[in-house]
Structure prediction request, 255 residues.
Amino acid sequence: MLELAAGQLEAAVSLSDLQDIVVGLRDSLEIDHIVYHWVSADGEQYGCGTYDPVWVQRYVDQDYLRIDPVILACFQRYHPVDWRRLDWSSRVARAFRKDALDHGVGNQGYSVPIHGPSGQFALLTLSHTASDEDWDAVVGAHQREIILIAHYLNRKALEIASNRAPKPSKTLSPREVDALTYLAMGYARGQVAEMLAISEHTLRADIESARLKLNAQNTISAVAQALLHGHIVIGGTDRAAPGDWPGKERAALAS
Prediction:
């Protein structure tokens, strides 16, 4: 499978070629769906894959990018994500998952995060309706190939659509770095303002300035891009990924 996909990607010259390759991979693995999803630093989305077009349009219309636990987890991680290990306990996450299931996405999922140049972020996702045992067998048998294909596919997408690459981010001020760092650690805005000894109004201005410099669509994306660019570093094993933040902190970021 890897050799065939690599050869097809080498020969690909258009985005429609990538769509054909993704469909072929899905059929080869005998699963419901494979999707390549690109999210630029300013929130622009591009994708190819096998989801129902009705679900794809609904995902965009409902702005699910902001609350999708898979996207939020993959922003900060470099290793593949099994959907079963994500936190689906919040009301928003449960409603999103039900909507996805109703549109045929599948109860199992495996996503490979890809962090490209200049803050480019993408992921390759496999999804299927299956038991845990059957899904583990599929992933276990093809995990290495899936990861390699994800990176081959992203490299080709960058080559074909190089004009989509996001602009390099600008340097953040020390206070902007501090603000985003505390937000990434899960603190609410009021707590961050108090720790920085500034008003919440000033904090909002700093966050907005950082967002613009990072070409980010919202605060969650700004935090993710700051992490990806190395502007902020959350050390230790207790780092809180966006998908793991308590509800009120996610709400504070999104406001």
